[in-house]
Every structure is written in structure tokens, then in C-alpha cells.
Design brief:
The protein folds into 4 domains: about 80 residues; about 80 residues, Nucleic acid-binding proteins (OB fold (Dihydrolipoamide Acetyltransferase, E2P)); about 200 residues, P-loop containing nucleotide triphosphate hydrolases (Rossmann fold); about 160 residues, P-loop containing nucleotide triphosphate hydrolases (Rossmann fold). Helices cover about 40% and strands about 20% of the residues. The protein starts with 6 loop residues before the first helix and ends with a helix. It is of the alpha/beta class. It is built from 24 helices and 23 strands. It is globular, with a radius of gyration of 30 Å. It binds adenosine-5'-diphosphate and magnesium ion (MG). The site of adenosine-5'-diphosphate has 18 residues, from helix 11.
């Protein structure tokens, strides 16, 4: 065979085909998820030692951060009186020697053998007249030659060393040489993008002659990873468009115009643009599949209402699904207000028109109320329904659902969206879908996570909002409560959010309860303080929210149930206790509960000075910026893509080398390339090498391959 080797083939060759991999080694490799030669070649070096940069011991000065390479001379280990382990070793090169001390790393005495060559990174100190490094980073260099030494993630437990892995990947690449590794990317693109071919890229990353080799190889392999993900997303999207039909709406109905004209304020430019994008989708018989991103307070609700009214104006129905009862109810209240005075055609009435009918359906709606709503949805006398998961329960049917809005999408799974779609219509058409999220994610990340959705962005706040002033309070917490008092005196209200406790609803609830107790018997004893958490039943939640909304409570102590969407413009103070326990996105969401009216708002992040470096970064980021998109970028830099992908979302494990924070340009290029390669019908017919590669790629994931492409 002289054809280049495909990734599928490499993935079918077991590692035990390599020299020195017997039963035991095979088992060890399996422990670190390396089964095939493909796995081995994509087990990338963690870092490289550039030996031209190493310091000689004679030149090292105390206080310096250095890399030194030398041989281990001796190793001893002992325990202190309080059973702490200390491993000491000495290292030398041809110019001098250095003492190493490791605290609480007893395993080092097994790792470090006399005569071993190691690279150390760390700070050098002077201790009793000798140079010493404490707890340095250690890389075993072994007998690897060359100026640049690749260091692989090692597993002490599995007993694999970096040079075992380096040796095997060298051998694997050598054995690929005569056939070479397949490159499905047409040469034209390689040239345009200035990329190495795939074989060269694998060689460059595993056996670089220089650090620039590493970067070039990495670029190519990063593109490969991102492109596979984008191809799948693109195929899925094109197949959906090719197959599904939606309801085609007229979009300039007087009902819609009347709604917009009746608003007490002008739409922002971003709202207008977004509404136009959505209208154009609804005006097509291809079902909309769109994500509406907008920072907190950007005015997504109006955009949603606009889309829902387009459905209603044509005699169809609209549904809005929210993740919690509190939110569903609030949306209901808002939309109910917005719908006041609107009328729809109804030939069964004397006048031919009737008021638009909007209903709420949650698990809190029961008995005859519930039966009436459900019946109205079925016979079409209910035009708009707002609800929770209750909307997709068995036995709930619509007469003619044509637009669905899902709020705060991250709390719903893809499956639930599909159910709504299927509940939708008898005629096989799909309702148009608008997914709203108030957790902006960076553009390139959105392309990867939501790659098959079109994205509209509300990147502008309505005018007249004064920015929320945020401060991290570590001492003198009294000032926070003083502030609450003075705001309440002026008729304003405040939220107090309790520490997050291990994502446990129950513990969160009890923390909120005890916080409230403490406050009403202490600093806030003169105020009316309510309590809201996820364990209250629907009626209690409803009553508390209503009381707060109507100003019968001054302060609301809550868990993160108020994180999303709660909209009470008179609340101007947000206090987040143990703020270091929350992530950036969550803090920003919580903060977004204030600053919704014309009054100046304040957010206090309460946390001691003794918090981790990461938490410090987060709180400082919040102090410095009110911009959800900028914060999302920061979050991505700080925490990596783990924060963005959820388990069910594809992509996470497919990106071994690519980083959404670092490789933004490549995400965009991959997306553009995918759009060129995939045809109208969602196939890769004209790029058979890619077609085979993508088929292999989806098959090797756990997901059901068919489903993945079906969308
Ligand atoms: P979010 O995007 O966070 O869901 P909302 O839709 O809840 O934001 O809107 C926040 C507040 O801004 C609401 O009180 C809403 O009435 C108001 N609002 C929305 N659009 C405008 C606008 N164009 N001009 C002024 N106020 C607006
Ligand atoms: Mg909202």
C-alpha cells in the first residue's frame, strides 16, 4: 500500500505494535487513555526544554528563577518528628552542585535515582552557604539528545516516563514515513494559511529542531482539531436546513407594529437589529435556530416578545420556556403587561377580534386553572404560554405552535429543546427556535459550543443606566450594612446573596436561612427582611417575590435562585457574601439584578483578603468591568474552556491542543474553512478524505454518531 495512512488506520493500530510495549506497558498506556498509535501521536508534549537556555550552576545566583540540567548525585529521605516527609538530593553539572529539598513528596525518593539526568525549574536560595532549590519542578530528561527535549505528561502511577513516550512516538513517526500521514486539507489551503502538512506537523511537535518548529506544528494540529469540530457542526446545520420545514410568517402585521409603537421608550439600535434578524428568519420556511446573547439588562425580553407576537399575529402560538418558576412567573408578569391592549383576530366572536390571551403554566399552576390553560393551548384560544419544564410534559399539546423561545439556555439540555420541537406541530413542521442567554461567551467560543446556531448579539444597554459601582469589601463590613440602611431610607431595596455551598440546594437553603436569622437579630433588625431559596414551595416563592416587588420587603436574602433574570428596578444594592466562592459569570449575573432602574446601584463583594490568587483575579475583574463580554473573555483566560463546555456538549474532549482563549484566530479560520468544504446538503462529497475522517471522528466518540450529525 502506498496511499498515505489515514487517522482511522492509525487509530486501529494498537500500541503493542511498538517496540518494547508488552502486556504490562500496554496496560499502563491504557491507564492514561492511550490505546492506539493515533492516541500516542496526539499525546502531546506538555513542555519543552530548550537546552540552549539552561544555566550552568557556577553562574546561578541566589534569588534567581532558573532552569538547570544536571545529574543526581545522591538521594536521602527522612521524616520529621511530626511525620512530615523530607527528601533531599544533590545535583551536579560540570561546573558545580546544588542541593534539592522536597517537602511532603515522599515519592521523589523513588523517582530520583543516582545518575539520572534531570531538568529543574525553580528559585535558587542560599542556605547555610550552599545553593538550594526547594520543591522545584522536575523533568526527567533521560538520554534524549537534541537541543530541544520534549517533555510529555508523565504518570508516576502508571510507571511511564517521558522518554518512554518520546521513544514510542519517534518510532511511530519513523514507521509512518514511507507512506506518510494523510492530509485531507487541499494544498491550496495549506499555502494560503502557511501551514505545515500533517506529517510535518506531527514531526515538528514531537521532534522539534527549534522552538519555532513547535509553534508551526502546533498551529497545524490546532487547526485540525478545530476543523473537525466545525465540520461536524456545519454538516449538522446544513442537514437540518436541508430537511426541516418551518412555518413561514408575514412579519409586518399591525399587531407587531402596534406593540413596538406602544412601548414607553425607543428600542436600542441593537434591539432593532436583532429583531430584524429574527424577523427575517421567521419570514422563511427554514426553521430558525438562533441564539440571542445579551448582557444582563440589555433588553432581551422585548426581543423575545417581538418574536412571539409574530407567531400570534398570524394565528399561531408562541411559547416561552424559563428554567425556574420564579423566572417563568416574572416573564409572565412582564409579558402580560406588554400584551395589554393587544388584540388578535377571532372569527368566532361578534366583533371578529378578542384580547390576546397569555397564560402561565408551571407546576405551581394546578387544578381547574391548569386544566383551562392546557385546554386553551390545545384548542388555540391561548396565544402565548409562559412556563417551565411543565410545558414539555406528557399530555401538553399545542394547536399551532410556531415560535419557541427558551430562556437561559444553559439550564436546558439539547434533548429538551428537541421535545418542544416535537410537541410543536402535527403537520411535521418545526417551530422556530430562539435560545436566549444572559451569560455571554466570547465569539469564538460561541462558534465552537453553539456552532450550529446562528447568533444575534445585544451588545448595547438601553440609555440612561448609571453603571453599577462594584467594590470588594474585605474589612469593615459594617459599611455594607450602613449602605443598606441609607438606601432603604431613600426607599430603595437590597439583595443579600448567601455563600454557595457545594452546589447543594439543601445546604444553600440552610445557609440562607441562618444568614437571614443573623441579620434580623443583628444589623438589620429594624428592616423587613425576606428569604428566598430553591427549597421553598412555589406558593412561598411567589409570595416572597411579590412582596419584594411591591416594596413590602426592604431586603431579600437569597441563594443563587435569583441569579438569572429577576428584574426589580427599585433594588439598588447587591451584597454577595463569600464572593470568592462564585465564578465570574455567576457574579456578573448576580450583580445584574441591580442597576436596572434610574437610581445609582452598588454591588459589594464580601470576602476576606486571604483568598486564592484565582479568586482575587475574579473579584478584581468584577471591580474593573461591567461588561459581560469582556468578563467572559477574562473568564476564558483564567479558567479555560472547561467553564464553557458542559458535559453534553460535544467538543470538549476533542480539543487536546487547541485553546479557545489562545487560538481564536484558528477558530474563525476553521469555521470559514468548514463553510467552504461542506456542501448545501451537509455532505463532504467533494472532500472524500475529510468525509472519511469525520465519519471516523464521530464514530470514535461515545455519542451516537447518527444523532451527532442529525442535530
Ligand atoms: P435582560 O436582557 O437582562 O433580560 P430585560 O429584558 O429584563 O433585560 O430588560 C431590562 C430592563 O430594561 C427592563 O426593565 C426593560 O423594560 C428595560 N428596557 C428594555 N429595553 C429598553 C429600551 N430600549 N429602553 C429603555 N429600557 C428598556
Ligand atoms: Mg431577562
Amino acid at each position: 500500500m502506498t496511499e498515505p495512512i489515514s487517522l482511522r488506520e492509525l487509530d486501529a493500530i494498537s500500541v503493542d505494535q511498538l517496540q518494547g510495549v508488552g502486556e504490562q506497558r500496554r496496560a499502563s498506556l491504557e491507564e492514561v487513555q492511550i490505546h492506539s498509535v493515533f492516541d500516542l501521536l496526539t499525546h502531546y508534549p506538555r513542555r519543552y526544554i530548550d537546552r540552549s537556555h539552561e544555566a550552568k550552576l557556577v553562574d546561578v545566583c541566589p534569588g534567581q528563577q532558573v532552569m538547570v540540567v544536571g545529574d543526581i548525585e545522591s538521594v536521602t529521605s527522612r521524616r520529621t518528628r511530626n511525620r512530615k516527609s523530607i527528601v533531599e538530593a544533590s545535583l551536579s553539572d560540570e561546573t558545580g552542585s546544588l542541593k534539592l529539598v522536597f517537602f511532603n513528596q515522599a515519592w521523589r525518593s523513588k523517582q530520583l535515582d543516582q545518575g539520572l539526568t534531570v531538568a529543574l525549574f525553580g528559585k535558587v536560595d542560599l542556605y547555610r552557604g550552599h545553593l538550594q532549590m526547594t520543591n522545584p519542578l522536575v523533568d526527567l530528561v533521560g538520554d534524549r539528545t537534541g537541543r530541544i527535549v520534549a517533555i510529555y505528561p508523565q504518570s508516576g502511577k502508571a510507571g511511564l516516563t517521558t522518554w518512554d513516550i518520546g521513544r514510542w512516538s519517534t518510532e511511530a513517526l519513523r514507521r509512518c514515513q514511507s507512506r506518510s500521514i494523510v492530509d485531507p486539507l487541499p494544498p491550496k489551503y495549506l499555502q494560503e494559511l502557511g501551514l505545515l502538512d500533517r506529517m510535518q506537523a506531527f514531526e515538528a511537535i514531537h521532534q522539534p529542531a527549534s522552538m519555532s518548529d513547535v509553534l508551526n506544528g502546533r498551529d497545524r494540529l490546532v487547526l485540525d482539531e478545530l476543523l473537525r469540530v466545525q465540520l461536524v457542526l456545519r454538516m449538522r446545520k446544513m442537514r437540518r436546513l436541508d430537511r426541516a420545514l418551518g412555518v413561514k410568517h408575514k412579519v409586518d402585521d399591525p399587531l407587531v407594529t402596534k406593540f413596538v409603537d406602544g412601548l414607553p421608550f425607543a428600542l436600542t439600535a441593537a434591539q432593532q437589529r436583532t429583531m430584524a434578524e429574527i424577523s427575517s428568519d421567521l419570514n422563511s420556511d427554514q426553521p430558525m435556530h438562533r441564539l440571542l446573547q445579551g448582557d444582563v439588562g440589555a433588553g432581551k425580553t422585548l426581543v423575545a416578545m417581538h418574536a412571539l407576537l409574530v407567531a400570534v399575529a398570524e394565528g399561531h402560538q408562541g411559547a416561552l420556556m424559563a428554567p425556574t418558576e420564579v423566572l417563568a412567573e416574572q416573564h409572565y408578569i412582564n409579558l402580560y403587561e406588554l400584551a395589554k391592549g393587544l388584540e388578535v383576530a377571532d372569527p368566532t366572536t361578534l366583533t371578529g377580534i378578542r384580547p390576546l390571551s397569555i397564560k402561565l403554566l408551571t407546576n405551581g399552576v394546578t387544578g381547574s386553572d391548569r386544566r383551562r390553560v392546557v385546554k386553551g393551548m390545545e384548542d388555540g384560544s391561548v396565544d402565548l404560554v409562559i412556563g417551565t419544564h411543565a410545558l414539555i410534559q406528557e399530555g401538553i399539546n399545542f394547536s399551532s405552535l410556531s415560535v419557541v423561545v427558551v430562556d437561559e439556555q444553559h439550564r436546558f439540555g439539547v434533548e429538551q429543546r428537541a421535545v418542544l420541537r416535537e410537541r410543536g406541530r402535527d403537520d411535521g413542521k418545526w417551530p422556530h427556535l430562539l435560545v436566549m442567554t444572559a451569560t455571554p461567551i466570547p465569539r469564538t467560543a460561541a462558534m465552537t459550543v453553539y456552532g450550529d446556531l446562528d447568533v444575534s448579539t445585544l451588545n448595547e444597554l438601553p440609555p440612561g443606566r448609571s453603571p453599577i459601582v462594584t467594590s470588594w469589601v474585605s474589612q469593615d463590613v459594617e459599611q455594607v450594612w450602613d449602605h443598606v440602611h441609607s438606601e432603604v431610607t431613600q426607599g430603595r431595596q437590597a439583595y443579600v446573596v448567601c455563600p454557595l455551598i457545594e452546589e447543594s440546594d439543601k445546604l444553600d437553603a440552610s445557609s440562607a436561612e441562618s444568614t437571614r436569622q443573623e441579620l434580623i437579630t443583628g444589623v438589620l433588625s429594624d428592616l423587613r427582611v425576606g428569604l428566598l431559596h430553591g427549597r421553598l414551595d412555589a406558593v412561598e416563592k411567589h409570595q416572597t417575590m411579590a412582596a419584594f416587588r411591591e416594596g413590602q420587603l426592604d431586603v431579600l436574602v437569597a441563594t443563587t435562585v435569583i441569579e438569572v433574570g429577576v428584574d426589580i428596578p427599585n433594588a439598588t444594592t447587591m451584597i454577595i457574601l463569600s464572593a470568592d466562592r462564585f465564578g465570574i459569570a455567576q457574579l456578573h449575573q448576580l450583580r445584574g439584578r441591580v442597576g436596572r432602574g434610574s437610581h445609582q446601584s452598588t454591588c459589594f463583594l464580601v470576602a476576606t483578603d486571604e483568598i486564592s490568587e484565582d479568586a482575587t483575579e475574579r473579584l478584581t475583574a468584577l471591580e474593573e468591568s461591567n461588561d459581560g463580554f469582556a468578563l467572559a473573555e477574562r473568564d476564558l483566560e483564567l479558567r479555560g474552556e472547561g467553564t464553557i463546555f458542559e458535559q453534553r456538549q460535544s467538543g470538549r474532549n476533542d480539543l487536546k491542543l487547541a485553546s479557545l482563549a489562545r487560538d481564536r484566530v484558528w477558530v474563525e479560520r476553521a469555521r470559514d474553512l468548514a463553510a467552504e468544504l461542506v456542501d448545501e446538503r451537509g455532505s463532504l462529497e467533494h472532500h472524500l478524505l475529510f468525509e472519511d475522517e469525520i465519519r471516523w471522528f464521530v464514530e470514535r466518540r461515545d455519542d451516537d454518531a447518527e444523532n451527532l450529525l442529525r442535530g
